[in-house]
Amino acid sequence: MREPLITKDTIANPRTHYGSASASTRRFITQRTTGAINIAFLGMLLFLVIRLAGEERMDVVALVGNPWIGLPLAFLIGIVATHMRNGMRDTLEDYLHGRMYSLVMMLNSLFCLLIAVAGIGAVLKLVFWG
Fold this sequence. Notes:
Blueprint: H1 8-12, H2 21-52, H3 57-64, H4 67-95, H5 98-129
Helix pairs in contact: 2-4, 4-5
């Protein structure tokens, strides 16, 4: 089935429905919230980078394995992956349509999920199992 042709007149007409209003609002709020959390955690990330510069692997494992450092770092990885997914989604929505859009959105979600699971799993392994 062919998608309806979307023109500037369709988008400019407030009586036409172009996308989901609730989903767009939710993504907008999520993007701004995760961005604010990323800014808040930037201090911790800078501390880790400066603190671990030039250190041996054992020192890095000991610092990241500390629950007071590792658990917020795992949380930050999840927030960054969510922010990355939404940001890429906004960019890809502008350029892709139809079946390619659906495929790329699914791949975007899977990639961000893979990054989040791998990063959080690695940090939690250090925190709970050394």
